[in-house]
């Protein structure tokens, strides 16, 4: 018969563990499940349940091969036309980009086709963006095929906007919408999230001299990113 967590002990341990975690510096490691179980003289299942609650609350992250750590503070990101990598560097985070897929998209979604216009063709790039190794954004970007070669797309590990700026092709206007949602299974796996953790979904339509350049969708963990919008009268 498997061990069952004691409800009253679990409640006390969960509250005490939360206080302990909140006193740690972001990124600091928690004691192992075995050590915590010994500390409170309870079954590891009770500790595991308490840790899962803190993970769902966004206070703790489980790092494969390293155990549990205090989750870092959310990264404050200004919603603007600009480099995601530069925004991370401003927070003293090391940006990393993993190309998940890149290729021509002969039949993009209707919203993409309507924005980029018929006959332009589209190159689609899927990228996972990290800061100091922590997944912060899962992006899917469609660009007019005359603005980026397939070879360039497959090696786009730096800033897309910096790349476009070299030839004077960086967007100078557009709009971006944001909504809250839950991740699907693939997004949760890539972002290392529980399926119950909320995410931000950003949709960008960028233009250069009023001509469409980029249609992009990004998924960001809501507990790791704080979005702010400059206001003007």
UniProtKB/TrEMBL annotation:
Keywords: DNA-binding, Transcription, Transcription regulation
Domain of life: Bacteria
Domain HTH gntR-type: 7-73
PROSITE patterns tied to this protein: HTH_GNTR
CDD domains noted in UniProt: WHTH_GntR
SUPFAM superfamilies with a match to the protein in the record: Chorismate lyase-like, Winged helix' DNA-binding domain
Pfam families: GntR, UTRA
InterPro entries (alphabetical): Bact_HTH_transcr_reg, Chorismate_lyase_/UTRA_dom_sf, Tscrpt_reg_HTH_GntR, UTRA, WH-like_DNA-bd_sf, WH_DNA-bd_sf
Protein name: GntR family transcriptional regulator
Natural source organism: Flexivirga alba
